[in-house]
């Protein structure tokens, strides 16, 4: 500084400054994920306030709304991918797929408002690519079902995966529009996928 003084931050050891920065990032991501998942139309200023940091601090870690959106989606998908590990996909593929939809719906529903908040900040291509780890698991399940004779083989696997992706987002849009309830959605999805996938 011009007067020869140092800030409190500068006087802290570099390790402590890094720890402080990581805590701030965690607070921002925790608050942002909670807010973005609660309702559409959340502002960056609201995230900063909920995290207990200033907007300058938030933008120091996430220079744009797009960077914040991507970080929040990454955090959400880390949780989704971890939750997948607990889903039983053994047995007949059609029954396993129904279990996946029913048991993972709470995360799909949590992510509905999150998607609405980030849709203007990230491209559809980026959003689809971020789903790839989960969609690859769906693809494996569909392939197994085709091999076992439970699922149709006259349509490409990629199309069946895309259909599930699209139907999940269509269900989210219908809930937002008030034409479907969150309680109804899992069974509507299961019935729709059963009709589409079966031979």
TrEMBL record:
Residue ranges of the TM segments: none
Coiled-coil zones: none
Pfam families named in the record: TetR_N
Repeat in keyword set: no
Domain HTH tetR-type: 22-80
Signal peptide: none
PROSITE patterns to which the protein is assigned, alphabetical: HTH_TETR_2
Record key words, sorted: DNA-binding, Transcription, Transcription regulation
Record has DNA-binding as a keyword: yes
UniProt-listed SUPFAM superfamilies: Homeodomain-like, Tetracyclin repressor-like, C-terminal domain
DNA-binding region, residue range(s): 43-62
Highest taxon, organism lineage: Bacteria
Region annotation Disordered: where it falls in the sequence: 1-23
PANTHER family: HTH-TYPE TRANSCRIPTIONAL REGULATOR BETI, HTH-TYPE TRANSCRIPTIONAL REGULATOR RUTR
Protein name: TetR/AcrR family transcriptional regulator
């Amino acid at each position: 500084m011009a007067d020869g003084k140092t800030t409190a931050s500068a006087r802290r050891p570099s390790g402590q400054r890094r720890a402080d920065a990581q805590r701030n990032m965690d607070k921002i991501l925790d608050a942002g994920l909670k807010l973005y998942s609660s309702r559409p139309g959340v502002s960056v200023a609201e995230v900063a306030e909920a995290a207990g940091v200033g907007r300058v601090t938030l933008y120091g870690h996430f220079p744009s709304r797009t960077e914040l959106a991507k970080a929040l989606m990454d955090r959400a998908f880390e949780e989704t991918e971890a939750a997948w590990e607990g889903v039983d996909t053994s047995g007949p593929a059609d029954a396993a797929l129904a279990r996946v939809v029913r048991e993972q719906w709470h995360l799909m529903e949590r992510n509905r408002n999150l998607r609405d908040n980030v849709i203007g900040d990230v491209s559809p291509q980026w959003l689809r690519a971020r789903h790839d780890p989960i969609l690859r698991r769906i693809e494996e399940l569909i392939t197994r079902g085709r091999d076992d004779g439970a699922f149709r083989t006259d349509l490409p696997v990629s199309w069946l995966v895309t259909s599930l992706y699209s139907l999940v987002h269509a269900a989210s849009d219908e809930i937002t529009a008030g034409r479907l309830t969150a309680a109804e959605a899992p069974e509507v999805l299961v019935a729709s996928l059963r009709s589409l996938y079966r031979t």
